[in-house]
Amino acid sequence: MNFIDVQNEFMAHIRQPELNKKPDDIQDRRMAVYRDLFFNNINGFISSGFPVLKTLYTEQQWLALIRMFFSEHDCSSPYFLDIAGEFINYLSSNYQTQSYDPAFMLELAHYEWIELDVAIAKSDIKEMSLSSNELTSTPLFLSSIARNLSYQFPVQTISVDFCPQEASPTPHYFVVYRDENDDVQFLATNAMTALLLSIIDNQAGVLFDEVCNLVLKQAPQFSLEQIEQGALSTLSAMCERGIIVTKNQN
Fold first, then answer.
1. 2 pLDDT exceeds 60?
2. Exposure winner among 7, 132, 207, 221, fewest CB in 10 A?
3. Is the pLDDT of residue 187 over 70?
4. In whole angstroms, what is the distance from residue 113 CA to residue 85 CA?
5. Distance separating alpha carbons of residues 204 and 47, to the nearest angstrom
6. Side-chain-facing half-sphere of 117: CA atoms under 13 Å
7. How much helix, strand and coil, in percent to the nearest 5, is found in the chain?
8. DSSP for 16-71?
9. Domain check: are 133 and 246 in the same one?
10. How many angstroms separate the CA atoms of 41 and 182, rounded?
């Protein structure tokens, strides 16, 4: 057996010891150290990254969930900071939901993960702050350290004492961003703000007039003048928080 085969046999046993035998030349007490070390590290990172989600499970259920992730998911990144994101990828792709999983499981997990995502996101060095009087004449961008989000469940209020069984009649909108002190902030928004930010995010470098005209197409019940007034007020507030920026074009 070559070295690659030995490595694969070793890792297969670490991930699923009940299905894969350990390498013959390693004592079980030594393998137990590795089995516990790897699994406990993964469990520790996920438990600390998703504290609210964890409280909604019994210890046995939570450990079973972590074991499924550990056994079934092939991480694309070797970095510990990316484990939480890999957990989200697993829940949204290969995970088979269990009868005891809450209906909002994925949304709550994403809401908890996004704080870490924004905290470690790299800033775009070309981004520049924008004043309100520059807003109508400068290409607009959503900051690289801001996220425009919507959820069907009120994820911000979920706890052991509040577990909604059905989605809300209307979405819940948020912007999560890193402020000038590098602290992560959560800002509740509304459908119109989310639409404005979505247009700017999807059409990076768009101008204010173009944004307003695109909004008009989706909200024809408003006049262009009403949309311009509302957009100017909303986006000015977003500029003050550093959520909307422009870029150095040089």
1. no
2. 221
3. yes
4. 7
5. 36
6. 21
7. 50, 10, 35
8. -TTTSPPPTTS-HHHHHHHHHHHHHHHHHHHHHH-HHHHHTS-HHHHHHHHHHHHH
9. yes
10. 27
Residue 16's contacts (CB-CB under 8 Å, 6 or more residues apart) are 71
Domain of residue 25 covers: 1-101
Q: Which residue has the tokens 């408003």?
A: 222
> What H or E segment, with its residue span, contains residue 147?
strand 146-151
How many Å separate Cα 188 from the centre of its chain? 16
Domain annotation covers residue 68: yes
In angstroms, what CA-CA distances link 5 with 9, 10, 33, 39, 162?
6, 8, 21, 22, 49
Task: Give the residue among 72, 118, 125 at the shortest CA–CA distance from 95.
Answer: 72
Residue 62 backbone dihedrals phi, psi, to 5 degrees:
-65, -45
Kindly report, residue by residue over 234-245, the tens digit of the pLDDT: 999 999 999 999
Tally Cβ neighbours within 10 Å of residue 87: 24
* pLDDT given for residue 209 in this prediction: 97
Q: Is residue 227 part of a domain?
A: yes
**What's the CA angle centered on 227, arms 151 and 129, to 5 degrees?**
75
